[in-house]
């Protein structure tokens, strides 16, 4: 008997759980063009208001995984572990974490995206490396994993096509911020890429997708629950996005900062987030007795050069020039700069982090819509963080621009996004919420 789509929508609208067979038939029909967008939009809105049980969300995720190509990794020895971030400003964690965890004998298969909105994209940052290729098919992806133990690639048209279509529809129906739909979108790509375990980096704060602690906690808990229903080991860490992570915002600038961390240097907040998430990854992968031991092992690998060596091996395997590891000047950064200075003394009270991402995009570092060109050489260097003391005339942000494109507008946004005051504020905790 053919699926009755209006009855499925009505059942979900009334809060009834949907059975896995109906969900699979619904998703298969959508990908095949047999279920029209207007019915799927109604379904998405019903889910938005009524939610899903973890079992329903897991069934939806499985249906999405089975909608296209899957990267089975059984022939590659080693525990398969991945991480995913909900996105932020200056978030270059994956650029460090992927080769670092691979250097500790894990297999890290990662499918990433390009930047959209105020958040940067891992693929755009990697594109600043001369020759680096992230548009790889299944066999190329598997070959890179065999050679280097890690890979970061983009999503192809045949890889979880249901997610690509559903996300585009969610974007235009105001249903993006539905926890069950977020879980299915994230986990479908991770499962299809062959991961066995996953650590979620759920960002919270003014530059995050979720700004409130309770929202972040709810999403983290749901991801863990749905992961368990899928038979996968999933844990979550909630990290601060109330100010940019590190100092660099923009593609080549962030890639340079990631290399600093891989050399055992770089900003302490980036390093601390990398080690916290990485320790969890090694624990889930069975490569550390506990997360603290995992962090210690990864800290050692940042210090002894093995993480940087794995980075060289990985970049070369994906067609990039490995010399960039030792010569960051190969990453082009614009020589045209302007400085936003403090107009008065005091302590930095807050930073409108989302606005920093918007300013970087106006300069050309990001895109307003898919298909827009990105200038990999522009961006921001953030010199002050919340709680820092500044005097009148101190540099707050250096803007790397191209020919003055949107420079005045970016300066106005950045100046308005930094609030100073006479009293020193409490510090922003890097890990503000525990599960």
Overview of the structural elements:
This protein is of the alpha/beta class. The chain has 3 domains: 47 residues, Transferase, Pyrimidine Nucleoside Phosphorylase, Chain A, domain 3 (Up-down Bundle), CATH 1.20.970; 248 residues, Pyrimidine Nucleoside Phosphorylase, Chain A, domain 2; 91 residues, Alpha-Beta Complex (Aldehyde Oxidoreductase, domain 3), CATH 3.90.1170.30. The protein is 44% helix and 14% strand. The chain contains 16 helices and 12 strands. The protein has a 4-stranded antiparallel β-sheet with strand order 6-9-11-7, with helices on both faces. Strands 1-4-5 form a 3-stranded parallel β-sheet, with helices on both faces. Strands 10-8-12 form a 3-stranded antiparallel β-sheet. Helix 10 links the parallel strand 4 and strand 5. Helix 7 packs antiparallel against helix 14 and helix 15 packs antiparallel against helix 16. It is globular, with a radius of gyration of 22 Å. The model has no long low-confidence stretch (mean pLDDT 94).
Counting DSSP E segments of at least 2 residues, the number of strands comes to 12
The value of Rg in angstroms is: 22 Å
Strand order of the largest sheet: 6-9-11-7
CATH superfamily of the largest domain: Nucleoside phosphorylase/phosphoribosyltransferase catalytic domain
Number of helices: 16
So, CATH architecture of the largest domain? 3-Layer(aba) Sandwich
The N- to C-terminal Cα distance equals 44 Å
> How much helix is in the residues?
40-55%
| Biggest sheet character | 4 strands, antiparallel
Strand content: 5-15%
């Amino acid at each position: 008997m053919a699926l009755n789509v209006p009855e499925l929508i009505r059942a979900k609208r009334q809060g009834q759980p949907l059975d896995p067979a109906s969900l699979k038939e619904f998703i298969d029909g959508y990908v095949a063009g047999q279920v029209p967008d207007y019915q799927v939009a109604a379904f998405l809105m019903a889910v938005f208001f009524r939610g899903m049980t973890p079992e329903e969300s897991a069934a939806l995720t499985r249906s999405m995984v089975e909608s296209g190509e899957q990267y089975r990794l059984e022939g590659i020895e080693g525990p398969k572990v991945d991480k995913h971030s909900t996105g932020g400003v200056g978030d270059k964690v994956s650029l460090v974490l992927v080769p670092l965890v691979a250097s500790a004998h894990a297999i890290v298969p990662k499918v990433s995206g390009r930047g959209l909105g105020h958040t940067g994209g891992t693929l755009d940052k990697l594109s600043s490396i001369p020759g680096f290729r992230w548009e790889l098919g299944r066999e190329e992806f598997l070959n890179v994993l065999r050679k280097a133990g890690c890979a970061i690639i983009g999503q192809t048209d045949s890889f979880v096509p249901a997610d690509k279509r559903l996300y585009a529809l969610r974007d235009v129906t105001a249903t993006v911020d539905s926890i069950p739909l977020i879980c299915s979108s994230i986990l479908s790509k991770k499962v299809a890429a062959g991961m066995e375990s996953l650590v979620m980096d759920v960002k919270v704060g003014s530059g995050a997708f979720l700004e409130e602690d309770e929202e972040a906690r709810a999403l983290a808990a749901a991801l863990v629950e749905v992961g368990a229903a899928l038979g996968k080991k999933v844990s979550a860490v909630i990290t601060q996005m109330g100010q940019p992570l590190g100092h660099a915002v923009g593609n080549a600038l962030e890639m340079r900062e990631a290399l600093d961390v891989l050399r055992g240097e770089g900003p302490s907040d980036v390093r601390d987030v990398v080690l916290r998430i990485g320790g969890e990854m090694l624990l889930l992968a069975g490569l550390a007795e506990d997360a603290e031991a995992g962090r210690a092992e990864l800290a050692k690998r940042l210090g002894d050069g093995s993480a940087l060596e794995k980075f060289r091996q990985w970049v070369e395997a994906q067609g990039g020039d490995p010399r960039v590891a030792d010569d960051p000047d190969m990453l082009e950064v614009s020589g045209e700069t302007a400085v936003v200075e403090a107009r008065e003394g005091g302590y930095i009270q807050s930073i409108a982090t989302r606005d920093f991402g918007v300013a970087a995009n106006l300069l050309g570092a990001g895109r307003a819509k898919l298909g827009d060109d990105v200038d990999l050489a522009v961006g921001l260097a953030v010199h002050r963080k919340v709680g820092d003391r500044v005097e009148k005339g101190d540099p707050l942000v250096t803007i790397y621009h191209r020919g003055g494109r949107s420079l005045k507008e970016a300066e106005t946004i950045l100046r308005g996004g930094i609030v100073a005051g006479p009293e020193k504020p409490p510090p922003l905790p890097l890990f503000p919420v525990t599960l």
